[in-house]
Amino acid sequence: MKCVSLFRRDNHRWMAFGQDPDRPETVIDTNQFVICSSSGALLLDPGGMEVFPSMLAALTHEVAVEEVKGIFLSHQDPDIGSSLALWRRVCAPDTKIYLSWLWTGFVSHFDRDASFTPIPDEGMDLTLGDVRLRLVPAHFLHSSGNFNVYDPRARILFSGDIGAALIPAQNRKDMFVEDFASHVQYMEGFHRRWMGSAKARDTWIETVSRLDIDIMAPQHGLIFRGDDVKRFLDWFARLEVGVVGSGR
After folding, report:
1. pLDDT (tens digit per residue) in 53-100
2. What pLDDT digit, counting tens, does each position of 103-130 carry?
3. Torsion angle of alpha carbons 194, 49, 41, 159, nearest 10°?
4. Residues 146, 213, 77, CA angle at the centre, nearest 5°?
5. What one-character DSSP code corresponds to residue 44?
6. pTM of the entire structure?
């Protein structure tokens, strides 16, 4: 599994993990993210149980698993966190698990003994040592209880399924978008089908447009940086989404 550094300043780090060559073709490709501070690490959408061995091996090349202090789940899907019980076996017993209040009872089907820190609908701040993160609501894009993670110091937005792309294996040559125009073909069908509401989309764009974002990191596909962040927001704002835009 690849590991790419997105940001590093002293003990404050962002890492992206993905494009696992050992992933079965029947399992959708995912990106996993890790934020580090002087006091430990936070896993963002650590993945499904099928990618757990590769993700754990890749992580421990960079961070001792004992350093993991928290796990953030953006929503309820199995590719997000069906590995939860496996992570809890290797992480400290007091590792916090952050998830929308709406999904705690459902995600307990992955791990009945997990104890969650529920995120209220309006979001919340999360402190990881000297790093302060903002959990930004992204409801109905595509989950009815959905959150992004924004780091104002690193100027990175983890956007979950917003910005996701389904890219053929032969086209995955890097972790970053290099040609936005040609990348649209891998995003369009996904966003038309999975983004549930134009009103929710417009509210989200209004919120994130007020943030300073150098990198937007989705949970599938490639990472946006620089001017491609604005290109994505402009493209998404014009896209027909929701029930009318689902197409099939």
Report:
1. 999 999 999 999 999 999 999 999 999 999 999 999 999 999 999 999
2. 999 999 999 999 999 999 999 999 999 9
3. -10
4. 20
5. E
6. 0.95
- Residues 127-177: pLDDT tens digits? 999 999 999 999 999 999 999 999 999 999 999 999 999 988 777 778 999
Note the pLDDT tens digit of each residue in 207-222.
Answer: 999 999 999 999 999 9
CB neighbour list of residue 227: distance below 8 Å, 6 or more residues apart = none
Kindly state the tokens that stand for 228.
């491609």
Neighbours of 129 (CB within 10 A): 15
Spatial strand order in the sheet of 96-100: 2-9, 12-18, 32-37, 40-44, 68-72, 96-100, 116-119
Number of domains in the chain: 1
Calculate mean pLDDT across residues 7-25.
91
Identify the CA nearest to 217 among candidates 31, 68, 70.
31
Helix (H) or strand (E) holding 183: helix 180-194
Supply the range of the domain harboring residue 205.
Answer: 2-246
Length of the chain: 248
Q: Can you give the CATH number for the domain in which 188 is found?
A: 3.60.15.10
Contact 146, 74 (CB under 8 A): yes
CA distance 51 to 82: 10
Cβ-based neighbours of 165, under 8 Å, separated by 6 or more: 183, 186, 187, 190, 218, 220, 221, 222
